[in-house]
Amino acid sequence: MKITMDDEKFSEFIPFVQDYVLEPSKEKSYCDEESLKTYGIMPSQKGNVTKDELKAIAEYIYDFYDQEVYLKEMQEKSAFDALPKGEQLVLKAGCYNCHDTVKNKVGPSFKGIAQSKNKEIISVIQNGSQGKWKKFHNMMMPPFKDKFSKEELEILEKWINSLATIEEIKPWSVKNAI
Questions:
Q1: Are 94 and 75 in a shared domain?
Q2: Of 31, 41, 72, 95, which has the fewest Cβ atoms less than 10 A away?
Q3: Can you give the pTM of this predicted structure?
Q4: For residue 40, is it within any domain?
């Protein structure tokens, strides 16, 4: 919905929000088809919110909502959601501060960890380590005992082990498709 003049705020935008929140439908929605398929139509909020409350909410949205920022955030969320669950956990926990998928950093790469056949991945994540890797003997990995559930630790272990055969993409080896 594009509002071009301030008086349209009251004549179009606020009544739309009040109506849609109380009686949502696909026909009234401004969402794209993919979003509707993914998330569906919102449930009616009839009985949960008054028209006056919706007016206040709509005024706030109108005055402070930035569509470009919102779209950028949604694109970032969509890209994140498309990642394997193990990589999502790695990103959330900040593991890439010390590790990389294929290159050694402060700590060994996840590919290197997977290739080592280290059977202690879960234990190392939970309890930390120091001196387990020759090139990294002075570095200490802190324990993340309370950071991950048992299920998340298993997802991390499986994801790390899946990287044993991943190839590093070198910019000069990618052929120009044009």
A1: no
A2: 72
A3: 0.62
A4: yes
